[in-house]
C-alpha cells in the first residue's frame, strides 16, 4: 500500500517537473521572438537597414556610418525600447487587474485609467493648463499621469466604503470611464480644430515622441513595481481559487486587492502618460499568456510581460509597414489586432465561466 503511494507521488512529481520545463521553454521561446522582433523594429523605418547592419551597429557602433549610428541610437532605439516597456507594463497591469477582480475583461482601459489620462492630456493640449507647476516640457505627460492616478485613487477610496469587493471596483471603474470620456468630449467641444486634432492624435497613441529620459522613467517605475508584485505571486495565485478559499489560506483578500490595484495603476499610468492611450494590449496580452502558461503567477506574470512587450513591438513593426513612408498611430494597429480577439473572448465567455 505504501509502495503504491510512493510510486504515485513520484509519478506526480515527474509530471510536475515536465510541466515546469515546458513552461520555461515557452518563456524562452517568447523571449527569443521578442529579441528578433526588436531587431526588426530597429531595422525598419523611412530608411530600411539589414539586420546584419543593425546587429553590427549595436555591437560595434564605431564601425558603422555616422548616419546609421544616429538613426539607430537617437531615434529608433528609444522608440523600440519604449514599445517593449509600455507593452510589458500594460500587459502586467491588465493581468493583475484580471486576477484581483476575477474579471476576464479587466484592463487599464476598463477601469478608467486611460480615459482619465486622456482627459488630463486634453487639458494641457487645449487650454495649456498645468496640473503641476514645474517641468513644463513634460506638461502633457504630467497632466495625464496626475489624472490617471487620481482616477485610481478615487476608485480605491470609494471602494473602501464597500469593503474593497471585486464587483465594487469594476463598477467604479466603469463609472470612471464614462465620467472622463464625457469630460474629454466636453473639452473637445469647446476647443478649436487644431486642438481637437492634437487631442485625437494623443488618444490614438504614438511612440514617435519617445526619448531616452522618458524610457528611463518608464523603466524605473517598472523596476520599482515589479518586485513588489513578484513578492505577492503566491497570494495572487491563491486569489484565482476564490475569495473564501484564499481567506482560509490566510490571505487578507481586501488588503491584497487594494494594494495590487494601486501598484498596477501606477505601473499603467506612467507609460500611458508618455505614449498616449494604447488600447487592448492590457487585455489581449494576459489572455495569450494565460492560454500558453496557465494561472500560476510564477510563470503567468513573466509570460504576460513577454506577450505584452511582443504584441506592442509587433504592432510597432506593422505600423511602419501598413503605408510605405508613413508611420501609422500605434494605437490604431493595436486596436485592429485586439478587436477580433476581444469579440472572440466575449463570445467564448458566454459559453464558459472564466
Automatic annotation (TrEMBL):
Keywords for this protein: Cell membrane, Membrane, Transmembrane, Transmembrane helix, Transport
Domain of life: Bacteria
Parts forming coiled coils: none
Keyword Transmembrane (UniProt): yes
Location in or out of the cell: Cell membrane
Record-linked InterPro entries: ABC_BtuC-like, ABC_transptr_permease_BtuC
PANTHER family: ABC TRANSPORTER PERMEASE PROTEIN MJ0876-RELATED (PTHR30472:SF25), FERRIC ENTEROBACTIN TRANSPORT SYSTEM PERMEASE PROTEIN (PTHR30472)
Name assigned to this protein: Citrate-dependent iron (III) transport protein (ABC superfamily, membrane)
The organism of origin for this protein: Hamiltonella defensa subsp. Acyrthosiphon pisum (strain 5AT)
Amino acid at each position: 500500500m505504501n509502495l503504491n503511494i510512493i510510486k504515485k507521488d513520484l509519478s506526480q512529481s515527474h509530471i510536475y517537473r515536465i510541466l515546469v520545463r515546458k513552461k520555461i521553454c515557452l518563456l524562452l521561446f517568447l523571449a527569443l521572438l521578442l529579441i528578433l522582433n526588436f531587431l526588426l523594429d530597429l531595422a525598419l523605418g523611412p530608411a530600411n537597414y539589414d539586420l546584419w547592419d543593425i546587429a553590427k551597429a549595436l555591437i560595434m557602433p564605431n564601425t558603422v556610418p555616422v548616419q546609421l549610428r544616429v538613426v539607430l541610437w537617437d531615434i529608433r532605439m528609444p522608440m523600440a525600447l519604449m514599445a517593449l516597456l509600455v507593452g510589458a507594463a500594460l500587459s502586467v497591469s491588465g493581468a493583475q487587474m484580471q486576477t484581483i477582480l476575477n474579471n476576464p475583461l479587466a484592463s487599464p482601459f476598463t477601469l478608467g485609467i486611460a480615459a482619465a489620462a486622456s482627459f488630463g492630456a486634453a487639458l494641457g493640449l487645449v487650454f495649456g493648463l498645468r496640473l503641476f507647476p514645474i517641468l513644463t516640457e513634460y506638461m502633457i505627460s504630467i497632466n495625464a499621469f496626475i489624472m490617471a492616478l487620481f482616477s485610481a485613487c478615487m476608485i480605491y477610496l470609494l471602494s473602501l466604503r464597500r469593503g474593497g469587493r471585486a464587483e465594487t471596483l469594476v463598477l467604479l471603474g466603469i463609472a470612471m470611464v464614462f465620467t472622463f470620456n464625457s469630460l474629454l468630449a466636453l473639452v473637445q467641444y469647446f476647443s478649436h480644430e487644431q486642438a481637437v486634432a492634437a487631442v485625437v492624435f494623443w488618444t490614438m497613441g504614438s511612440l514617435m515622441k519617445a526619448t531616452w529620459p522618458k524610457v528611463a522613467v518608464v523603466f524605473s517605475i517598472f523596476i520599482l513595481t515589479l518586485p513588489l508584485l513578484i513578492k505577492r505571486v503566491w497570494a495572487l495565485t491563491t486569489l484565482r481559487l476564490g475569495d473564501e478559499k484564499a481567506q482560509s489560506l490566510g490571505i487578507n483578500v481586501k488588503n491584497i486587492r487594494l494594494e495590487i490595484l494601486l501598484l498596477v495603476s501606477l505601473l499603467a499610468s506612467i507609460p500611458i502618460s508618455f505614449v498616449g492611450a494604447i488600447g487592448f494590449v492590457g487585455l489581449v496580452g494576459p489572455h495569450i499568456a494565460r492560454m500558453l502558461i496557465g494561472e500560476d503567477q510564477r510563470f503567468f506574470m513573466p509570460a504576460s510581460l513577454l506577450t505584452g512587450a511582443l504584441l506592442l513591438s509587433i504592432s510597432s513593426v506593422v505600423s511602419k509597414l501598413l503605408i510605405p513612408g508613413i508611420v501609422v498611430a500605434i494605437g490604431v494597429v493595436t486596436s485592429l489586432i485586439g478587436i477580433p480577439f476581444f469579440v472572440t473572448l466575449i463570445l467564448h465567455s458566454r459559453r464558459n465561466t472564466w
